Amino acid sequence: MFSHIKNLQFEAKPDGPDAAFARRLQEILGGKWGEMTVANQYLYQGWNCRLPGKYKDLLLDVGTEEMGHVEMIATMITRLLEHAPLSLAEAAEGNPMVGAIYGGSNPAHFIHGGGGAMPVDSVGMPWNGSYVTASGNLMADFQLNVTAEAQGRLQVSRLFNMTDDPGVKQMLRFLLARDTMHQNMWMAAIEQLKEDGLEAMPVPEAFPDSPDFTEEFSYTYLDFSPDGDAGQGRWASGPAPDGKGEFRYDHSPRAHAPEPVLPPGDPRLYGTDPGMVQGVMNKVKSKVT
């Protein structure tokens, strides 16, 4: 059961209109790494969590907070669109800066949204549920959540440097602070899972009946760039983070299977017949010689 409180978690009020920046702000609302994504991601992870207690509560608490951030950003976008010129003539009446802002605005904000925010990104692509991952494995989900918060913090930071509006900057400061907390929180939750003995890795490094795979593949860095420097990294030698193996470095990885040769396909599919291709090549060779 959800309750809606009319007050915002933090003020979302610009000092003036800016339709062009409203368009940019759509990215952290309806983009792949926007608030609509993390809100739904955390809520679905929580609803799908089969482990009652602190982990389920954590997911649902943060998902609910993120839904409040959706409302904050939508409110800010709507306010940035207030008093924005609706035509080139209106824009031309003011100073050149107003005309530039008009040129950078998203017409869909006015045509589709009636002067309000929309569930789209900064180029108008609709938000969609494929952005959401809720796997049922807490370790896998929490690791992705760290990434989601890192990307969110990055985008908020970039937007902060794209506006001079003090009111907008204050809201972005708040969002950045909360994203910082959430990123650290998910990293702490990963450590908590390990301490509770629930999970060390999302899946075993190899199946118990395949020790040869573990020995040769689970901890070996394969260098496919002979002149590269990847072999100097932490991932090429020393103990692995899972504590179950030692990294090793293979500077000349070998193939483990021969070149695949596929049989002719079903003729009813009208694919290219390998036999015909070989015949054409033979004819070309005979002409050359």
From TrEMBL:
Residues 243-257 have a biased composition (Basic and acidic residues). Belongs to the manganese catalase family. The gene is yjqC. InterPro entries: Ferritin-like, Ferritin-like_SF, Mn_catalase, Mn_catalase_dom. Gene3D superfamilies: 1.20.1260.10. It comes from Micromonospora gifhornensis. Pfam families: Mn_catalase. Residues 230-277 are annotated as: Disordered. This is Mn-containing catalase.
